[in-house]
Automatic annotation (TrEMBL):
This is Nesprin-1-like. The keyword Amino-acid biosynthesis does not apply. Residues 157-187 form a coiled coil. The lineage of its organism: Eukaryota, Metazoa, Ecdysozoa, Arthropoda, Crustacea. Gene3D superfamilies: 1.20.58.60. Keywords: Coiled coil. The keyword Endoplasmic reticulum does not apply.
């Protein structure tokens, strides 16, 4: 009978000891993750690099779910088992202990959810920024080639007319292209807060390059179109004279 009591007391001690150890581990784990789940103060400018940071936090979210599903769930089961032998006062203490532990975990997960939402928005902003920059650079590149084409190398009215169509198409797209560059400049305000000084410099260089190149296009496109139109007119007049000369000789 005494042995039974001893065994029962020992089992009760072990059960409580294990429960306390689990709570200590949960508290230590939660405390150690508080800094990890906070939103980072800096995020790379490139969307690909920013996406990798986001995925690290997604893994942290998965790890947290696994931990809650194992250690925290185990502590809950232990608490439920202990409640059977608790008086009213101990029951309240046990409930308070679990509420505190679960509350810290809940707060941790909420912080992480907020961080993931913030990072997701910043990654999407970077992807949109890069997409708009790519579109702007593509248009600028096409316009630069068209503007730098030497009119003298276009040696027939037909070739000149094809080039004129290209320039007129660029002129039609010019307003949209300028709006896009202005939009890119405005997007910088949302990106700057989380950038390193090096990335801020890179961002500024990207925008300045687009603005400088578009300014060159804006200042030269109309003149180039007029130049091509004059060249077409000249080519046609020359062709007419040649035809007239040929007819005169034939007569």
């Amino acid at each position: 009978r005494i042995n039974e009591i001893k065994n029962s007391l020992h089992a009760a001690y072990e059960e409580r000891h294990n429960f306390e150890q689990n709570l200590q581990q949960i508290s230590a784990w939660t405390g150690g993750k508080e800094a990890e789940v906070a939103c980072p103060s800096l995020l790379p400018l490139k969307a690909e690099a920013a996406e990798k940071v986001y995925q690290r936090y997604k893994k942290l979210e998965t790890d947290t779910k696994i931990y809650v599903g194992s250690s925290v769930a185990s502590a809950r089961r232990q608490a439920d088992s202990l409640l059977k032998d608790c008086d009213e006062e101990d029951t309240e203490d046990l409930d308070d202990t679990m509420i505190e532990a679960v509350g810290k975990i809940t707060e941790l997960r909420q912080t992480l959810a907020g961080t993931l939402n913030c990072l997701s928005n910043m990654v999407e902003s970077r992807k949109d920024f890069e997409k708009q920059v790519d579109l702007a650079q593509k248009w600028i590149h096409e316009a630069e080639i068209a503007l730098r084409t030497d009119t003298r190398s276009l040696n027939s009215a037909d070739v000149l007319e094809e080039h004129l169509k290209k320039l007129e198409m660029l002129e039609d797209e010019q307003e949209e292209a300028n709006r896009r560059i202005n939009s890119i400049s405005n997007m910088c305000a949302d990106l700057l807060e989380y950038l390193t000084e090096a990335d801020k410099f890179t961002l500024g260089e990207i925008v300045r390059d687009l603005q400088d190149r578009s300014e060159f296009i804006n200042s030269g496109l109309t003149d180039k179109i007029e130049q091509i139109r004059e060249a077409i007119f000249t080519q046609r007049k020359m062709t007419e004279r040649m035809v007239q000369s040929t007819q005169t000789l034939a007569n």
